[in-house]
Amino acid sequence: MSEQGKLTDVIMPQLAESLVSATIGKWLKKPGDTVEQYEPLCDLITDKVNAELPSTVDGTLVELLVEEGETVSVGAVIARIAVPVAGGSAPAGEASADADFAHTATQAAYGTVPAGTAPDADAPMRARYSPAVQTLAQQHNIDLTAVSGTGLGGRITRKDVLAYIESGAANRRPVRTAVAAAQPAAPSAAPSVQPALQIPPAAAKEMLEPVRHSGLHLSESPRIPTIEVESGQGSSSEYLIDVTPIRNTIATRMRQSVSEIPHAWTMIEVDMTNLVQLRHKLKDDFKRKEGINLTYLAFMMKAVVSAIKDYPIMNSVWAVDKIIVKRDINISLAVGTEDSVMTPVIKKADQKNIAGLAREIDELAQKTREGKLRLDDMQGGTFTVNNTGSFGSILSYPIINYPQAAILTFESIVKKPVVINDMIAVRSMANICLSLDHRILDGVICGRFLQRVKDNIESYTPDTKLY
Q: DSSP assignment of 257-302, as one string?
């Protein structure tokens, strides 16, 4: 028992069955800070995703037992929180997190500064929301773009949302789109809430206009990495970039894939004209009904899944003295973030229709880019699909997602003159590239597989159903 209350241990949680340790990326609180239940204490870095470790109790952070950058085994005590005895808080034994923690696996974000500190004018962390903040916003139907953040880098904390609710502003303003102009909240006894930034009409119009692109299925501008660097010693002509744990894991897996798997590569050209017309016909109704974009990837993934059902050897792994063919078709979807590539998994993709695949693709891509992936989202993949055409690529040689047997990329859809019945016609064409594990797969089986994918894509008609 400390002077501040009963001490509660903060335990390194079991994030997943396959993980036995995690690295402390950054402490978001320091000794002496007051913490609330569900408020993030630190960033955890694993081989697959980054996660925030939330507090399970209200109290005061008393002691940090682990330094930033230190790797800790599951079950180890990493900090202690003093819980006021009079508050009737849960005993220390209940402070350890369990597998349910996985839903808080958000990408690493920097925490809050002590109360009363002015927010960073540039607000680089404003759009990074913790699970507690998101839950409150959903419960009270709050547009978080209207809430002023007092956390480090302008980040919105749970206290900010509660102050916004107490001010009554949440009941006076409807939920708005990201480009709607913000109206200032009325003053009240609660902490003052600054209005959201006003967006000029010209900027708002620009945000609503379609992006320019070179490929027909590029839906957003390619993301450019934002990396913190430090100057190289003794030279102004170079700088150093620290290798993050996730980047180090990617390097290890890629090196393992290239060194252990004898890669081979093949490609086929597909006429996408019918698919382009079908998507154009259905996309507006689908957007109104589902609230998400109907992308080409959903149609092409359906074609791949159907082909894997015809050639199940594509859905296998090498096990030295045997080849293991997976019964479930779990498609790993390569999604690029600002500083890495993640491969969340669409489980049992063969049991989903085109609309179901479109929903899964949109959800996983959004969760990946917002740093909200759970560890379960990253596990169990049996075959990888990559939409390299989304940034204009027309030809690529992908590295296999170890230990899978193959990876397939869809390249950009471009209009080309082609010969049909001895006549030249302009058609929408795309390349499909396949890298294969030559220990398991040979050219014949992969050629037939790609031909089946091609046939499936070219067989789409105006009467094809999404559901």
A: HHHHS-EEEEEEEEE-HHHHHHHHHHHHHHHHHHSS---HHHHHHH
